[in-house]
Design brief:
2 domains; DhaK_dom (chains A, B); globular; 332 residues; transferase (chains A, B); Hypothetical Protein Tm841, Chain: A,domain 3; alpha/beta; six-stranded mixed β-sheet; Dihydroxyacetone_Kinase (chains A, B); homodimer; 8 helices
């Protein structure tokens, strides 16, 4: 646990955005006045603008996925706080096209409210606007609260696939249907063995004894229902993979993309081992691992933990997943 | 600080390599018996095979840079330990071409010895072999010991540029000259505010009080000459950038590539802020920032720290830097 490298805790996000804009000036533009990042290059065939956003502290999500073949714009909020609806409204007006604008929203109350207000304002201006709500985290499924499942790792996959689909000229209604289908076919689960550092205090955001695991942690440090014991990776990933496979009813003949995602403080050695264990278990079940993503895609500041996501795919989804994109955190 | 997610500390590297090979089966092959990763696709124009390697725990270095346009092979050692000379010998035999093989070696005693023994064996088999020694870390410059400067962030840039140059059909002697020139034009400096976790004990690898900075830390946790106080990022990066600019004699009209590299436990928010501060200081000095790399490229397990590297470039170097490559950690 250590202090962040920063000028001040309030300066972390604006200073990072300035550096981000400078580092990736060939791919993105940071519209500082209106608070959104937009793609410098986009496909002329695209008829619907794709806009996402959410609290900062999850980088590269969402700003790293702005660019040709992915998002048209992303609105970063303060750390772990929703962007303001004005940011979303301005971004949507700037990148909306003849077919309107699609909002890709992680399922958190603040994000839902702010994207909702922006959508109402866009509607009053006659700009067609629809939403795909991303809620893939199985750990929050049994909460019994109205909020529903949290949105986590699926977001990256949805942003990639919908970006490629939008580039074919697909309309708003079909994009919504595709997006909702993707969300329904994707589930995630996260564990942490140490909390993230709170930016304002420089101290651990929650208490977790050494050797304990938060099994089902959220990307803002939402506590799990119960704390579990640290255990060999094979057993841990086995349990996680089994839970995801059951949730998606995967079986012999199913095909998936797997995402072994670092929450900020874990090493690539650990993440590749996670992928290896998951792959072995999918093999045992006769599930085809079509593609694997390993690295930091949706983080929780410097939390020492990882998430595992599985997306069930067909040939068309794979084709869109494989389509070239040029975004700061996704270049193929 | 927390236990690693692993089956065992000894299993961390082999388990990660198995997952790495599975995740990137389209790009690389893990030759388990001989202990090296080789590229699945390479340019037919290449006449010299490029081989690197070193201790594990620095991922994505080196295995992530194996692929078309970059390395032909990489030999991973155990964590923070040189690969065995047999691994290097076998990798070199496997990927050497009519023009021979070039070893890209970070300046550490173990690596020098093992690459050296492999080179002797290759020579006895009539395989032309030469070496570029990478020693960019200014913090180790004044050690007054025979070991010389350590090799760190420059390695990524050298592997990228030499990969593109090799793809033009450049011969061994010219590649060595280009590589030595690149190393001479690149300098790095690293700081940490918390140590990495030792895999065998699960405890901090060295003691550093809260609020203290190890200014000039090495990528294996080599201590700096002295501990400094934590300070605002602007001041810290200002001092680092000034030191690198003086070492490279940068001034008005110079052009550079900057690498803001995470050592494992820092966030992208922090790294982008580092890049932003460095860019501002280069602007002040009239130095053109031609390209920026921000992220985890050469890590030190989960160390909470970052390094800054500057490489002075000309138009030809930029062209090679920009050339497409398809490696797990470098796809453009």
């Amino acid at each position: 646990m250590a202090l962040y490298f920063a000028n001040s805790s309030e300066g972390m996000v604006p200073d990072a955005l300035a550096g981000f804009a400078r580092a990736h000036a060939d791919l993105v533009v940071w519209e500082r006045e209106h608070g959104f990042v937009r793609a410098r290059h986009t496909s002329p065939a695209r008829r619907v603008g794709l806009v996402s956003g959410g609290g900062s502290g999850h980088e590269p999500l969402h700003i790293g996925y702005v660019g040709a073949g992915m998002l048209d714009a992303a609105c970063p909020g303060r750390i772990f706080a929703s962007p303001h609806n004005r940011q979303i409204f301005e971004a949507s007006r700037a990148v909306g096209r003849e077919g309107g604008v699609l909002h890709l929203v992680k399922n958190y109350t603040g994000d839902r409210i702010n994207f909702g207000i922006a959508a109402e304002r866009l509607g009053r201006q006659g700009i067609p606007c629809a939403r795909v709500l991303i809620d893939d985290d199985v750990a929050s499924e049994s909460d019994g609260v109205a909020a529903g499942r949290r949105g986590t790792g699926a977001t990256v996959l949805v942003e990639k696939v919908l970006g490629a689909a939008a580039d074919t000229g697909m309309g708003l209604r079909d994009l919504v249907a595709l997006g909702e289908d993707l969300v329904e076919r994707c589930r995630s689960l996260a564990v942490a063995s140490a909390p993230h550092t709170a930016p304002t205090t420089g101290r651990p955001a929650f208490a977790l004894s050494n050797g304990a695991l938060e099994y089902g942690v959220g990307i803002h440090g939402e506590r799990a229902e119960h704390t579990a014991a640290h255990r060999p990776l094979r057993d841990l990933v086995g349990e996680m993979t089994g839970t995801l496979a059951r949730a998606l009813r995967l079986g012999r003949g199913s095909s998936v993309i797997a995402l072994a995602n670092g929450l900020g403080g874990v090493t690539q050695l650990e993440l590749y081992a996670v992928l290896g264990e998951a792959a072995r278990l999918l093999d045992d079940r006769g599930v085809a691992l079509e593609r694997a993503l390993v690295g930091d895609f949706v983080t929780a500041l410097d939390m020492h933990g990882f998430s595992l996501s599985l997306l069930e795919v067909d040939g068309e989804t794979l084709k869109w997943y494989d389509a070239p994109a040029q975004a700061p955190a996704w270049r193929r």
